[in-house]
């Protein structure tokens, strides 16, 4: 392997290591909020679908990555994905409308 290839390989390895450290830091920072969400899901505070999905996550039958990544095709997971997509779409639409409104306001004297 040439010196240039070795240098690029070290750069890639460094980036991968930094990405791993960042992911671990984010997971640590999010842990308290995630624990609260899990408890709210278990208690039914977030609705029946969340309770069903959390029970399956706790049992090792699925993961949130599978639920929201589309791998879990259970009815509760499908409904959570659909609601999540609708929320994201509504947020994006709201952002677009806000931008249009700002542009219109800029055109007014």
Q: How would you describe this structure to a colleague?
A:
- The chain has 109 residues and is mostly helical.
- It has two domains: 36 residues; 66 residues.
- It contains four helices and no strands.
In short:
The relative contact order is 0.06. The protein has 4 helices and no strands. The protein has 2 domains: 1-36; 44-109.
Low-confidence stretches: none
How much beta, percentage-wise?
A: under 5%
How much helical structure, as a percent, in the residues?
A: over 70%
Largest sheet descriptor: none
Shape: flat
Q: Which radius of gyration do the C-alpha atoms yield?
A: 21 Å
Q: What's the number of extended β-strand segments?
A: 0
What oligomeric assembly is this protein in?
A: single chain
Mean pLDDT: 91
**H-E string:** HHHH
How widely separated are the two ends?
66 Å
| Helix/sheet category | mainly alpha
Total domain count: 2
Number of helices: 4
């Amino acid at each position: 392997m040439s010196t240039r290839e070795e240098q690029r390989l070290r750069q890639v390895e460094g980036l991968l290591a930094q990405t791993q450290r960042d992911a671990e830091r984010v997971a640590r920072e999010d842990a308290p909020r995630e624990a609260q969400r899990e408890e709210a899901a278990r208690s039914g505070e977030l609705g029946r679908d969340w309770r069903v999905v959390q029970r399956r996550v706790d049992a090792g039958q699925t993961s949130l990555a599978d639920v929201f990544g589309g791998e879990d095709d259970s009815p509760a997971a499908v409904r959570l994905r659909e609601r999540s997509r609708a929320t994201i779409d509504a947020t994006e639409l709201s952002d677009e409308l806000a931008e249009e409104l700002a542009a219109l306001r800029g055109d007014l004297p």
